[in-house]
Write a structure and sequence with these properties.
Strand content: 5-15%
Oligomer: single chain
Order of helices and strands: EHHHEEEHEHHHHEHHHEEHEHEHE
Largest sheet: 5 strands, mixed
Structural class: alpha/beta
Length: 327
Amino acid sequence: MATLKEIYKQMVEVGISFDPRGEGTVRNLLKRELEKYKNLPEKEKSDYDLEKLENPYADTRILNGNDADVVKSVIVGIDIESPEIMIAHSLRQSGRRIDAAISHHPEGRAYARFYEVMGMQADILNKVGVPINVSESLTLDRKAEVSRKVAPANHQRAVDAAKLLNIPFLCIHTPADNMVSSFLSGLVEEKMPECLGDVLDLLVKIPEYELAKKEGGGPFILIGDKEARAGKIFVDMTGGTEGSKDVFASLQTSGVGTIIAMHMSEEHFKKAKENHINAIIAGHISSDNLGLNLLFDEIEKKIGAIETIDCSGFRRINRPAPAVGQG
């Protein structure tokens, strides 16, 4: 039996342990954040988000509920917005036990500040060979662009619905994305696929992608063909949202031949193609499913089974074996 706070903390801790930057790097960032907080003027400390001292992911927060709320059964969706909160309320009214709602995509204050996690993209790009000065500059520009887009949104709609209906509510974004990034990176490193067709074959054997294919989606080659050699593969699955569209020249220079991504905008597609980088789209919602399932598998090892009620694109698939690529 676990509380809302325990589930949240475990998900954050698992996200840190599977962070592509390395757990040590993330722990050092948390130490630096603590020093930053200590040096703030007292008048600024009252507005400081204390969660940042233990949770490095601004897009992952408890949005409603008491820390001590006991949670045995949760409704889980890729997006939990007002309609899904109403579904949870209706199910409760009909006698179904629902202790909390868990969204993958951020809502409320986690959505308002989710662009803050994009800073991790600079370190991820650096690990595949992009010079840190280049990756930081590109990431800062893109982060500012995303912050401007997010600023006018009505961030609190779903949170207000949860409060009115007394439904505990949390969102888990980057920790789940870290899981899918780690899993696929480990799989690619282990299997060493030679051609894009080999990469595609690996992906479609993963249950979440296999199911997506049956439902009309599934992985596909966006740039290149099945016989094209993959070369150095970059799994681009975490860091808030798509990075800078100007990064592809640097990726080409660093030797990246193929990107595996959740999705790719038209602008990013054109830039990748200009720089002769192959692209495989694993699928957005199916990749989110994979990340959430891996995350649930890990925390259930620590706190026991949690009943999940699937909605909004989520499909619970259990894996008894440890996740690939931890570390």
